[in-house]
Specification:
Keywords: 4Fe-4S, Iron, Iron-sulfur, Metal-binding, S-adenosyl-L-methionine. InterPro entries: Aldolase_TIM, Elp3/MiaA/NifB-like_rSAM, PqqE-like, Radical_SAM_PqqE_MftC-like, rSAM, rSAM_sf. Its cofactor is [4Fe-4S] cluster. The chain is α/β, with parallel strands linked by helices and 366 residues long. It has a single domain, classed as TIM Barrel (Alpha-Beta Barrel). It has 13 helices and 10 strands. Strands 1, 2, 3, 4, 5, 6, 7, 8, 9 and 10 form a 10-stranded mixed beta sheet that branches. The radius of gyration is 19 Å and the shape is globular.
């Protein structure tokens, strides 16, 4: 049975009590066939998806946990007819709600004003190729690029904040300049740059070369504080190290950035699947419990894997001895995807720690 909200675990970690971001995969159904899909999405909804009643109960439990942001994702969340009712319940409970739909014909026929009226503050759309040809090939369905560009404009007209997500792979790093120019044209509120994790349909051979990725991060850092949009990386935590080395950022965050320092899988992030399974992230597919039997707060605060992932000193390899481990910590999901060990070093980081005993804390740079 689902118990009462557990008391917080005393700790110095600012993420010990609650996650900063909760990603809820409300359905795994989607009309696209994306090359990198974490969920390996299917055309039809799963028969064991959380029911509407169970979804509403989960919203109420998350409201007790009070995460700053809840993202309704998938698959394609618009494949659930009750998704706006779920969003409205979460918004009415005081949570900031984001929606991450797929660039399908369904989206083109959706009422964007209804999305905003449901209390959704931000819509995130994916552009994984900087051109029609490369994006549509990535997504597996023709017309996806044009629909996504149209959806950005529709969201702007409806007064929705827009986030654009771009996945960096070995095959599209050469498009970085074109991606950057496209962001300046579309002017989203945020550009979220995701570094591929080999899970689902994504393969280890698609992960960018560490040295090439370092060069892209240097160019991305040039934009921070100058671009007309904020920037964040997902599963590219060592971008924070690049910024810190440049003297950018501060104790509470980073100039031109939005998510707090040190956030990573299980540490400030919690993922809930379409069937209620809780994991440290959607890219780190460990079964840590199910919201049908356990309060999500208990799982986040008490499950041994979540507790261990919040301990930067538990990391192995060069991540464990890196002076930037408390503001970065590397991608636990990519470490698991490549090495089979969630505590191994991040294979996409080229940095070599300078001092085994040093610790680069957010308090020491401004």
């Amino acid at each position: 049975m689902v118990g009462a909200l557990p008391s917080p675990t005393p700790a110095n970690d600012p993420f010990a009590e609650r996650p900063f971001l909760v990603f809820w995969e409300v359905t795994r159904a989607c009309a696209l066939a994306c090359r990198h899909c974490r969920a390996e999405a299917q055309p039809q909804r799963h028969p064991d998806e959380l029911s509407e009643q169970e979804a509403f109960r989960l919203v109420d439990q998350l409201a007790e946990l009070k995460p700053p942001m809840l993202i309704l994702t998938g698959g394609d969340p618009l494949m659930r007819r009750d998704v706006l009712a779920i969003a409205r319940r979460a918004s009415d409970a005081g949570m900031r709600v984001g929606l991450s739909p797929s660039g399908t014909a369904r989206l083109m026929h959706f009422d964007f004003n209804a999305i905003r009226e449901a209390g959704i503050e931000r819509i995130s759309l994916s552009l994984d190729g900087a051109s029609r040809q490369t994006h549509d090939a990535f997504r597996g369905v023709g017309g996806t690029f044009d629909r996504t560009i149209a959806a950005v404009e529709m969201a702007h007209l409806a007064g929705l904040s827009v986030q654009i997500n771009s996945t960096l792979t070995r095959s599209n790093l050469h498009e970085f300049d074109a991606f950057r120019d496209l962001m300046f044209e579309l002017r989203p509120a945020m550009w979220s740059v995701f570094v591929l994790v080999p899970t689902g349909r994504a393969q280890a051979a698609d992960v960018p070369d560490p040295e090439d990725l370092e060069g892209v991060f240097e160019r991305l850092a040039d934009l921070v504080g100058k671009a007309p949009f904020t920037i964040k990386t997902t599963e590219g935590h060592h971008f924070r190290r690049v910024l810190a080395q440049r003297g950018k950022g501060g104790r509470k965050g980073r100039q031109g950035m939005r998510s707090p320092l040190g956030i990573r899988d299980g540490r400030g992030v919690m993922f809930i699947s379409h069937t209620g399974v809780v994991s440290p992230s959607g890219f780190l597919p460990f079964h840590c419990g199910n919201v049908r039997q356990r309060h999500p707060a208990w799982i986040y605060r008490k499950h041994p894997l979540f507790v261990s992932l919040r301990d930067s000193d538990a990391l192995g390899g060069k991540c464990g001895r890196c002076e930037f481990r408390n503001i970065c910590g590397g991608s636990r999901a990519r470490a698991y995807g490549v090495f089979g060990d969630a505590f191994a070093e991040d294979p996409s980081c080229s940095y070599q720690p300078s001092d085994r005993s040093a610790d680069f804390s957010p308090q020491v740079f401004h």
